[in-house]
Give the backbone structure.
Amino acid sequence: MSLRPENSGPTPGSGGSRERAASCEERIERHLKQRLADFRQLLADYVGSDPLRSYGVAFYYVPPHAFPDQPEEYCRYQLSWGCPCDDIRFFVDADDLTCHRVEYWFLDSGDDAHRVLDDDDKVLLDEIWEWLTEIGAVEDQFVKVRAR
């Protein structure tokens, strides 16, 4: 089974023109469910290795107020690019680099929807955050920001 971001393979739930006609809010649950299943499968199949290195497009820091109505800083784990695209946003305490909230975002041509992850989904994404921290990706992003 090949788990790839949607920019390099089929978009979860991509159903052509009918899929595109639906709003992001109407489509987000299906996309989120598929991404969470992908992460669970990656973590189950590749214990002891770095399966996530080949999953996703980018990981980077987004400062506060980079966008209108966005007062908090976060780290964006971009899963795909283009239209549609999706990402995981880890909202971080910059002092100790701990993650206090995780959101999944689904965006398509000026439309977007998001969900705050909780319960088992939050635990799963906390594992992803821990992995990103262990490989140095989190600290690397904050070192770059602090150097500016």
The chain has a mean pLDDT of 83.
